Amino acid sequence: MSMLPPSADPLAVPPATPPVPPPAPRTALAVPAGGATATLAASAVAFASSLALPPTLLPAGAPAATLDPQRLDEKALAAIAHFHQAGESENTRRSYRQALRYWFAWFELRYGRDLALPVHPATVAQFVVDHAETRPAARDQQLPAGQDERLVAAGIKAARGPLALSTIVLRLAALARLHRDQQLEAPTEDPAVRRLLRNVRSAHAKAGAAPNQKAALDKSLLKRLLETCEATPLGVRDRALLAFGFATGGRRRSEIAAADFAFLSAADGWRYRLAHSKTHQTGAARPQDIKPVVGEAAAALGAWLEVLDDQGVERTGRIFRRVLAGGTVGEALSPEAVRQIVKRRCALAGLQMEDFSAHSLRSGFLTEAGRRGVPLKTAMDLSGHASAATAMGYMRAGELANEPAVRLLDDEQR
């Protein structure tokens, strides 16, 4: 059966489609009268009115746009989520997840219901007094002992007793971020909560409570660690890792784990370009991003690269890898593995393992720089510290040991 209408001639040539006339040019930006216009400066209105716009690109009869200029579609949301994940460190995401997991568990125990947003400022204040030491150094808190034990037994809390003030602050920051992500006002910004936290800090300071800082691995202590590194693939790897981490300005464990061959070049030893760090998120090239690896550190790194070459491992991807049983080189190290390497070598060197962490390389570099009289700017260029006060705190500790003022009780040297 023909699909043509009865009057249609199947042999007839269909008429040509008339050409679509070009759209008329838009000569000016439409500016509404009154209302919004009244709030604009006269010069801005004049500029907007005279602005020539390009011709419309929408074809005649185009369907209405499906995008809402005030909402994001699923593809845009997925892209945003991707960039958030790619641009944020795994350590940050893990800390955020752990903090929120604790909030949900604590709230359920304390109030007998599930946590719901927005959280009231009174709840935040309760969280602070539940976890801060009522009397610093006395290890007492407001959180009922039974609930504290249940949090520990469930693996939500590491140990019974109050939390470190820095941990409380971190968990408040996680709650604030959760609210901001949901377009809600953060209860942590409530004046009463801010005043409470300020006075908790003050009370701890008056009682002599100090942040739990790990000891610095200065040159003399680092040498003891390096002496424990035997001539095996594992020992060669650890020696290179420790020397690299210290000599390049005291790198963070995440930066050591992320060290990549793409940024390593041979030049009077080696040069490593730190393309991304906690204080440098844009990726823009800067002169201070170049970290020379020379002398003993260059020799240690070169020995590790020879191990990789001998095992046929290509010089691509991560520089520092796992060493499996039998000395076989495996996949890339994680930041946690870097921390464990530092602590294990501390134990082998006869140091108290709990006194040190991977951050000890960072504080140790600045302490040694202060002791050796390295200018502050040079030390900060290598370490990448954004805060001069933080860097000076470490450097001054090293400088003071050489000051005559600390030896006034000693006999004068003739």
Describe the model.
This protein has 414 residues and is mainly alpha-helical. It has 15 helices and 5 strands. The protein has a 3-stranded antiparallel sheet. A hairpin with a 5-residue loop joins strand 4 and strand 5 (329-332). Helix 4 (121-131) runs parallel beside helix 7. The longest helix has 22 residues, at 90-111. Residues 1-17 and 27-31 have low confidence and may be disordered.
What tags apply to this protein structure?
single chain; 414 residues; mainly alpha; three-stranded antiparallel β-sheet; 4% strand; globular
Care to give the gist of this entry?
The chain is mainly alpha-helical and 414 residues long.
Structural category is: mainly alpha
Helix content: 40-55%
Low-confidence stretches: 1-17, 27-31
Question: What is the strand tally?
Answer: 5
Query: In angstroms, what separates the terminal alpha carbons?
Result: 122 Å
Counting H and I runs of at least 4 residues, what is the number of helices? 15
Fold blueprint:
Blueprint: H1 42-50, H2 74-87, H3 90-111, H4 121-131, H5 145-153, H6 165-181, H7 191-206, H8 219-227, H9 233-247, H10 253-258, E1 264-266, E2 270-273, E3 290-293, H11 295-310, E4 321-323, E5 329-332, H12 335-348, H13 359-371, H14 376-383, H15 388-400
Antiparallel strand pairs: 1-2, 2-3, 4-5
Helix pairs in contact: 3-6, 4-7, 9-11, 9-13, 13-14, 13-15
